[in-house]
Design brief:
Blueprint: E1 9-11, E2 17-22, E3 31-36, E4 41-44, E5 52-56, E6 62-66, E7 71-76, E8 83-87, E9 91-98, E10 101-106, E11 112-114, E12 121-123, E13 131-139, E14 145-152, E15 157-162, E16 169-173, E17 177-183, E18 187-192, E19 195-200, E20 215-219, E21 223-224, E22 227-228, E23 230-232, E24 238-240
Antiparallel strand pairs: 1-2, 2-3, 3-4, 5-6, 6-7, 7-8, 9-10, 11-12, 13-14, 14-15, 15-16, 17-18, 18-19, 19-20, 21-22, 23-24
Length: about 240
């Protein structure tokens, strides 16, 4: 396992592959491996030395990641050479929007959408008073809204925002509520102090229904350098490190 502060696991939306970061005995740097559930074996992703933050495109055909030089990369899941896209200084998560569109996060910054050439940057979120970081972005189905973590002296936790709006809304408060993801069961899943939690979520209203109570999915979830070691696919499949 890597000690990265960024995610090191990613389940493909179609549940056919699991990407994970690992350090092979005798090798100096972590690399990304791609496990095939159909073949029951893993293969090394070329160009992934020192990499972290694996994440899949919505059609499960592409794998994105940050390499050891904070460079955003993508590679076809079926195999091939990793393509270099843009530099992201001190990356802190990423989420796929389209074939060549990404939401990126970096230390001390809001969520942004850089162009694939890195020549321009579109700001997707804005800081409210007391906020110092928006990180671990995760797009909701249809890419019209975004879940992300907020580091703040006032209201840290998980926020939600429609793309194009000027402000986000606090969804789940608490500095220990981390790495939100939506599943097709109608829940937001997130890590909390070594536990994996799920709470019902209204996708149209972008809110937790009144009276809804978070439930425990599992306990004993490992967390390394602030990063909970789990991934959920859109269908609700779960991979984690106990």
């Amino acid at each position: 396992l890597s000690d990265s502060r960024n995610p090191i696991l990613a389940l493909a939306p179609d549940d056919r592959h699991l990407a994970y970061v690992a350090i092979k005995k005798g090798e100096p740097e972590p690399q990304i491996y791609l496990w095939s559930f159909e073949q029951g074996s893993a293969r090394l992703v070329p160009g992934s030395a020192g990499a972290d933050t694996p994440f899949f495109s919505a059609d499960s055909q592409w794998l994105g990641f940050y390499n050891g030089q904070n460079r955003l990369m993508k590679v076809p899941v079926r195999g091939g050479v990793a393509e270099s896209l843009i530099d992201v200084v001190n990356p802190f998560g990423a989420s796929w929007i389209g074939e060549r569109r990404f939401a990126t996060a970096s230390l001390g910054s809001v969520i942004q959408e850089p162009s694939d050439e890195g020549r321009s940057v579109k700001t997707l979120t804005r800081f409210d008073t007391g906020e110092t970081l928006h990180y671990w972005p995760s797009f909701l189905p249809g890419n019209s809204a975004l879940l992300f973590n907020v580091m703040s002296s006032k209201v840290p936790g998980i926020a939600v925002q429609r793309i194009g709006d000027d402000h986000h809304r606090s969804l789940i408060e608490g500095s220990d509520k981390l790495m939100p993801h939506y599943t097709s069961s109608g829940h937001v899943v997130y890590a909390q102090s070594g536990n994996l939690m799920a709470v019902p979520f209204d996708l149209e209203q972008l809110k937790i229904p009144q009276g809804a109570i978070p439930t425990l999915v599992l306990s004993g979830l490992q967390q390394v350098s602030g990063s909970p070691l789990f991934s959920v696919s859109g269908s609700g499949s779960l991979a984690y490190v106990p």
